[in-house]
Amino acid sequence: MPNGGPDCCGNCSHNRAVQEMAHPHPSDREKFRRISFCTLRQVALSNPFWTYCDNFGYGKKPELRNVDEPLIGSITSSGLYEGYVRIPWHDAVEPHVSVPAVCSICQRQTDVGITILHAGHTLGFCTNQHYVRWWLTQHVDAAFNAENFESPEERFKEPEGPR
Ligand code: SF4
Ligand SMILES: [Zn+2]
Prior knowledge:
Layout: H1 16-21, H2 29-35, E1 37-38, E2 43-44, E3 51-52, E4 76-78, E5 86-88, E6 96-102, E7 109-118, E8 121-125, H3 128-138, H4 152-155
Antiparallel strand pairs: 1-2, 3-4, 4-5, 6-7, 7-8
């Protein structure tokens, strides 16, 4: 699996796994993933090489990190592939991507959607666009605009066949 960009939690000085293991030897990948935890935001990172935030600090010397720096924006994950895009977490709750879902916005059913846990319920979404549309009903953040993501009409359009 390719690495999801150099500015991911897997390279960040705030990740406990980076603090303890530096960069993982391939045979230590599972342990690295298991102990990945953001010590700035106090959240476990299940997918550190595909998770991001603007507090990223390259982890060459984690002992020099600023443990008191103010948080900047939301954590993001790689969204459904439409080109590489990043979608925000719901505070400390990570969206699950590429999973079966029934969309809470348009009711479309897909095997490759997004789900998020919210108020004790799992909500589903068909696309990054509909996930972000819902997310913006819960968060005020000008960094995200649902219209910047692929629409369901684009994503699910039927290939044109012979007439
Ligand atoms: S969530 Fe942000 S601050 Fe925390 S480990 Fe990941 S990139 Fe670093
Ligand atoms: Zn939808």
